[in-house]
Amino acid sequence: MAEPMGFYTDTTVCIGCKACEVACKEWNQLPATNGGVTTLSGDSYDNTRRLDGIHWRHVKFIEQFSLDRRDGRWLMMSDVCKHCVRAGCLEVCPTGAIIRTEFDTVVIQSDVCNGCRDCIAACPFGVIDINPVSGTAQKCTLCYDRMRAGMEPACSTACPTDSIQFGPVASLRKRAEARVAQLQQAGEKRAHLYGADERMLGGLNSFYLLVDRPEVYGLPPDPRMPTRNLKAGSLWSMLGAVVIGRMGLVSFRMRGGREEGPGGRLDT
Q1: Whole-number Å distance between alpha carbons of 72 and 65
Q2: What residues have CB less than 8 Å from 205, skipping those under 6 apart?
Q3: N or C: which end of the chain has fewer CB within 10 A?
Q4: Which pLDDT belongs to residue 268?
């Protein structure tokens, strides 16, 4: 198996240019929303709104300003599939359409997907959705076709500030840790990495450098696998079965008592 590959996104140098979104759509030939006729969201400069089956990259704009607008800052972040080491989508797929590649990335095979949507509910990051053109679930492939040809993914190639960096995950982690130390030494004590270690779903092959809480960026602070409720659900199912069984037994005995008359003779 090849070395795990992925993305490291340094949100502190993202300028919100959306070159990554454009490059992703162009390379993967993703359709425009409503044929290109859409309304403005009113949410800052974010008109993509979210990741889905036809938006595999999404640049988020977070405005943090005081009421008098004298102090403030912009937070920008190019979001994408996290290619989790323990992937909920892969766990629930009933057809085997979702696979782990030789690069340790997670890819949906459209020709095998039956559009059941199980993976959409299983993703804790809200990454996957149906592509209305193909009728199948789709998301970022980390440009699997380009990687197989020895090429860099389209989004990181287009990023003008190196906010999106591509490479072996182990090397990216070292680079990211050095960047966090640099920022903290410069006074940005809030700088930290999100998903760079194994504590989060075994590690995210696309991880982030943030300067605020994950929730501020729309990221779950503690994402979990779909099987997180399996143990509790099994216990409740067993308890329900015992209760129903006892109720059935009591009902059977009561019915037998009514049908049997005095002296053991059955009533008619």
Answers
A1: 4
A2: 4, 5, 6, 7, 82, 83, 84, 85, 104, 105, 142, 169
A3: C
A4: 43
Amino acid sitting at position 201: L
Mean pLDDT computed over 126-143: 97
Query: How do residues 228-264 score in pLDDT, each as one tens digit?
Result: 655 555 566 666 667 777 777 777 677 766 665 555 5
- Do residues 184 and 177 make contact, with C-beta atoms less than 8 angstroms apart? no
Query: How many whole angstroms separate alpha carbon 37 and alpha carbon 55?
Result: 15
Q: What b/e string do you get for 110-142 counting C-beta neighbours within 10 Å, with b at 16 or more?
A: eeebeeeebbbebbbbebbbbbeeeebbbbbbb
Across the range 21-31, mean pLDDT stands at 97
Structure tokens at 9: 């996104």
pLDDT at residue 217, rounded to an integer:
98
SS3 helix, strand, coil % of the chain, rounded to 5? 35, 20, 45
Beta-bridge mates of residue 209: 10, 193
What is Dmax (Cα atoms) for the chain? 95
